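anyone seen this seq b4? input:
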Amino acid sequence: MEITVCRAEDLEALERLLPSNSVGGSHAARFARQEAGESSCLVPWLDGRPVGHAEVRWTGCAAPEVRAVQPGCPEINGLLVSPPSLRSRGIGTALIRTAERLAAERGIAVMGLGVGRGNQRAEALYGRLGYRPAVAYVDRWTYLDEQGIQREQADSCTFLVKTLH
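predicted toks r here
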């Protein structure tokens, strides 16, 4: 497996193999934020195909509850490993470690990420990697349903932080 920073030529494969129905979380939207210097989009590749993604938002979490408690804390957002049969094989860990390395290279001392309440598998992974709860918040996002109608979603989450060494 190899993890790369997303390139323009990767977008077609990402959209075809890992389609996103999230309006702000589409591959094109993530790439546009990367091009604007607001984030870095990471893509793990296995046998020449993308098997996930993660976006390091250098501008931090959008939720006001998080910004109030962790101002300036970059966020790992949109972490995905797919297909599900590839989960628990170290790909998520490698994405997080790559994000942490990029942050350390920028002189950033702390990293954060959100986890949905009840996502015990993700909570366990993040805890093993040293992330600790900082603040509860509501993650609000917009997606397109099967008919192409824009819908709003609000999920109860916890923002976790880790001090980088």
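The chain has a mean pLDDT of 94. The chain has one domain: 2-163. kinda curious what u guys think
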